[in-house]
UniProtKB/TrEMBL annotation, chain A:
Residues 29-95, 133-181 form the RNA polymerase sigma-70 region domain. Belongs to the sigma-70 factor family. ECF subfamily. Signal peptide: none annotated. One of its GO terms (biological process) is DNA-templated transcription initiation. This is RNA polymerase sigma factor. One of its GO terms (molecular function) is sigma factor activity. InterPro entries: RNA_pol_sigma-70-like, RNA_pol_sigma-70_dom, RNA_pol_sigma70_r2, RNA_pol_sigma70_r4, RNA_pol_sigma_r2, RNA_pol_sigma_r3/r4-like, WH-like_DNA-bd_sf. Keywords: DNA-binding, Sigma factor, Transcription, Transcription regulation. It holds the Pfam family Sigma70_r2. SUPFAM superfamilies: Sigma2 domain of RNA polymerase sigma factors, Sigma3 and sigma4 domains of RNA polymerase sigma factors. It comes from the Bacteria.
From TrEMBL, chain B:
The lineage of its organism: Bacteria, Pseudomonadati, Pseudomonadota, Gammaproteobacteria, Alteromonadales. Residues 4-165 form the Lon N-terminal domain. SUPFAM superfamilies: PUA domain-like. InterPro entries: Lon_prtase_N, Lon_prtase_N_sf, PUA-like_sf. This is Lon N-terminal domain-containing protein. It comes from Catenovulum maritimum. It comes from the Bacteria.
């Protein structure tokens, strides 16, 4: 890849992060789709799983682009790391084939300390959305993602409130617990 | 009345708006009928539920539309009120219709210290995220029910959680919930706000 191309990728990621630029996202999608799909076919050995991997990777790119730090590495490195992590998750899931033991709350109890892991901390939320996306034809997935993303992520909320992500999570947990109590008291 | 139903993984409360891109034939049909008739029902997609749809839905009106660069139809819809959907019917092209009965959401509310803080946060969110701001040219920051409804729509919560706040009697609970999350108050006690001055 030429330095110009690499710079272009960084620019697109930054446009996605700062301006929620859909065109930049489409460009990123086009640039990475063949490779991610190829990787998925090889690792996951099924076309639908490869499509899922592509979809999930791109949805994280769209949502987490603000976490990409151009000083720390190339855009390709960042995106392929997301892809690999997701692919591991999918492999693990395929191996265990256990029923998802989703807890009542959608937030993982353990706070994620590791910086790089933070990117995946709302994994359970993604699963819920992924389940919906699975039921849709390919073209509609993109539309629905557009719709879904009008909702803030926990990271965005943390940024907007200018508090750490961990604080957002604990506030949400606290609020949900209190809500439960109130509902129980009233019923 | 009978309304076309569009289940999506989101929730709209009265006054809420969202932008949708429409291209599936069944939903183009839905839009065509909606503009000449009585709007449609935007329900929450629930994978486990019957008809994959919540019973409570937003009765929406199409308030704006445009044709995108790629030729797709984009519509802005706004929720007029909540409706309860019954007697779902699936038509040949996959479009669902249901009987819709208007139901109450929150009554109009008076401002409190908590809701004023929430209104400030919402206006900050809007000013920093142009996509939200552009949807609401005249935000009603002085109406607590409007402010809380927009915050519920925006927050990263599961649909099931959000649907709890679609219930008519949920306003007080909702304010306390948002107060904890947004204002960061551990107790819903205003005492906490008083700053101490030792000078």
């Amino acid at each position: 890849m030429t330095p110009e191309q690499s710079q272009q990728l960084k620019q697109w990621l930054s446009d996605i992060a700062l301006k929620r630029d859909k065109k930049a996202f489409a460009n990123i999608f086009k640039s990475f789709a063949p490779k991610i799909k190829g990787f998925g076919m090889k690792q996951l050995k099924s076309e639908s799983a490869a499509n899922d991997l592509l979809q999930d990777t791109m949805s994280i790119v769209w949502r987490k682009s603000h976490l990409y730090d151009a000083d720390k590495g190339a855009a390709t490195t960042w995106i392929y790391t997301i892809m690999r992590n997701l692919s591991f998750d999918m492999l693990r899931k395929a191996q265990t084939q256990k029923e998802d033991s989703l807890s009542d709350d959608i937030w993982p109890i353990a706070e994620v300390v590791d910086d790089s892991g933070e990117v995946f901390s709302d994994h359970l939320m993604s699963q819920q959305i992924a389940q919906y996306l699975d039921s849709l034809p390919e073209a509609q997935k993109q539309v629905v993602q557009g719709v879904y993303f009008q909702e803030m992520t926990q990271e965005q909320l943390a940024t907007q409130l200018e508090i750490p992500l961990g604080t957002v999570k604990s506030r949400l947990r606290l609020a949900l617990n209190k809500l439960k109590q109130q509902i129980e008291e009233n019923s | 009345m009978r309304l076309g139903v569009f289940p999506l993984p989101l929730i709209l409360l009265p006054g809420g708006k969202t932008r949708l891109r429409i291209f599936e034939p069944r939903y183009i049909r839905l839009v065509k009928q909606a503009v000449t008739g009585e709007g449609f029902a935007l329900s929450s997609y629930l994978p486990e539920a019957e008809n994959n749809s919540s019973e409570l839905a937003a009765w929406v009106e199409i308030v704006d539309f445009s044709i995108l660069e790629d030729g797709l139809l984009s519509i802005d819809v706004q929720a007029q009120s909540m409706v309860k959907l019954t007697q779902f019917e699936l038509e040949n092209d996959g479009l669902r219709f249901a009987s819709a009965k208007q139901v109450k959401h929150w009554a109009s509310q008076t401002s409190s210290d908590k809701t004023k803080l929430l209104a400030q946060s919402l206006s900050r969110f809007f000013s920093k995220i142009p996509e939200y701001e552009s949807l609401y040219p005249s935000p009603k920051y002085d109406e607590p029910a409007w402010v809380c409804a927009r915050l519920v729509e925006l927050l990263p919560l599961s649909i099931e959680r959000k649907l709890q706040f679609a219930q008519p009697e949920s306003f007080e609970r909702c304010v306390n919930f948002l107060h904890t999350v947004i204002n960061g108050e551990k107790n819903s006690d205003l005492f906490q706000f008083q700053t101490r001055n030792y000078n």
